[in-house]
Design goal:
By secondary structure, the protein is α/β, with parallel strands linked by helices. The chain is 44% helix and 15% strand. It has a domain at 2-195 and 225-252 and 297-316: NAD(P)-binding Rossmann-like Domain (Rossmann fold, 3-Layer(aba) Sandwich). It binds nicotinamide-adenine-dinucleotide and thymidine-5'-diphosphate (TYD). Nicotinamide-adenine-dinucleotide binds at residues 6-7, 9-13, 32-35, 37-38, 58-60, 80-84, 99, 103, 131, 133, 163, 186, 188-189, 195. Pfam families: GDP_Man_Dehyd.
Length: 355
């Protein structure tokens, strides 16, 4: 099959592209604008594979999208391109509205135009897979509740509101035009190639540099962490096996308080990076409570039983094994880290953390 992946130079997108090239026989076209979050370095391992190609394209650019659909003739579209960081959506929401809402609209229209002209076998087999987040459901009050596919939407941040909007557009394009769509809503991912503005890589790299480890508010907020390669595997199952119009929640059964995640990283670093920066006796001493994120969601947790039951997917990695692999990856890949921490990253850290 020909699979058009948007956002393939990002954290999850690059794991999906690596999976498709290494574990399947499909051809991949990676369509990515290469914002600050997109790094072709993350695709070094597969960039010379003859089944892989790349186009630096903005998903808001309909003319270019039409040409890409025409030339590549995709059987499947996996749409991951997005602005993805909640804190950035709070300080500047414009790009989130443009890429996540308008960009998804332009991609839907390009896909619809292309799909409507396909002959019937190809037309029936075509899928538009929209990759979304559990943040569209808002936060959970009781520690018992879990997000189901039927949980009402109640997004809190400009990021999650823009993702919720894009989910609605995708469902409307299915209901109104018959476009064969599938949607997945996943919990927090972690793993290699994660841009260090997000909690786990930020904490690993700050600790190694002897910098404060910023905990928003009281650190009691809960996230359900999934190793990124487990997510990539789930996405391929959904796009190839799910019924048209279905939605699947994807999660890792790994609920953790932020403060506990940070403590676990510190403990792993004591073991894996015992030579600490000057003046640091214990990585835990670097923990610093800072002002809370406005509108901060308290708890996310996924009920992933539908994807387990229908498609037989379960995560392979436990939080313990996944976090150790992740910390080790950052220790082994200092070149990648140095490159992504240059330029724009410095400005973000300065404005967000007052450094
Ligand atoms: P990311 O920020 O690491 O990567 C996003 C990619 O999209 C980058 O390569 C960027 O260059 C590209 N991009 C941004 N705007 C674009 C545009 N206008 N046109 C083309 N490309 C553009 O994000 P991620 O963490 O890999 O997330 C991927 C998808 O998964 C997103 O849709 C996100 O909402 C969703 N998601 C993420 C998580 C998570 O924990 N990271 C969890 C659930 C769902
Ligand atoms: P993040 O990785 O930004 O993911 P999301 O906001 O999409 O869940 O943040 C994960 C959690 O960690 C979230 O509750 C906010 C918190 N956090 C901090 O406490 N300090 C930080 O410096 C960052 C980036 C996040």
């Amino acid at each position: 099959m020909n699979i058009l992946v948007t956002g393939g130079a990002g954290f999850i997108g690059s794991a999906v592209v690596r999976y498709l090239i290494n574990e399947t026989k499909n051809n991949v076209l990676n369509v990515d604008k290469l914002t600050y979050a997109g790094n072709l370095e993350s695709l070094r391992d597969i960039e010379n594979n003859e089944r892989y190609r790349f186009s630096q394209t903005d998903i808001c650019d309909r003319v270019s999208l039409d040409q890409l659909f025409k030339d590549f003739q995709p059987d499947l579209v996996m749409h991951l391109a997005a602005e993805s960081h909640v804190d950035r959506s709070i300080t500047g929401s414009k790009d989130f509205i443009e890429t996540n809402i308008i960009g998804t609209y332009q991609l839907l229209e390009a896909a619809r135009h292309y799909w409507s002209q396909l002959e019937s076998t190809k037309k029936n087999a075509f899928r538009f897979h929209h990759i979304s987040t559990d943040e569209v459901y808002g936060d959970l009050e009781s520690t018992e509740d879990l997000f189901l596919e039927t949980t009402p939407y109640s997004p809190s941040s400009p990021y999650s509101a823009s993702k919720a909007s894009s989910d609605h557009l995708v469902r409307a394009w299915h209901r109104t035009y018959g476009l064969p769509v599938v949607i997945t809503n996943c919990s927090n991912n972690y793993g290699p190639y994660h841009f260090p503005e997000k909690l786990i890589p930020l904490i690993i790299l700050n600790a190694l540099a002897g910098k404060p480890l910023p905990i928003y508010g009281n650190g009691e907020q809960i996230r359900d962490w999934l190793y990124v390669e487990d997510h990539a595997r789930a996405l391929y199952k959904v796009v190839t096996e799910a019924e048209v119009g279905e939605t699947y929640n994807i999660g890792g059964h790994n609920e953790q308080k932020n403060i506990d995640v940070v403590k676990s990283i510190c403990q792993l670093l004591e073991e894996l990076a015992p030579n600490k920066p000057e003046g640091v006796h214990n990585y835990l001493d670097l923990i610093t409570y800072v002002k809370d994120r406005p509108g901060h969601d308290l708890r996310y947790a996924i009920d992933a039983s539908k994807i387990e039951k229908d498609l037989g997917w379960t995560p392979v990695e436990s939080f313990e094994t996944g976090l150790k692999k992740t910390v080790q990856w950052y220790l082994n890949n200092t070149d990648w880290v140095q490159r992504v921490q240059s330029g724009e990253y410095q400005n973000w850290v300065k404005t967000q953390y007052d450094e």
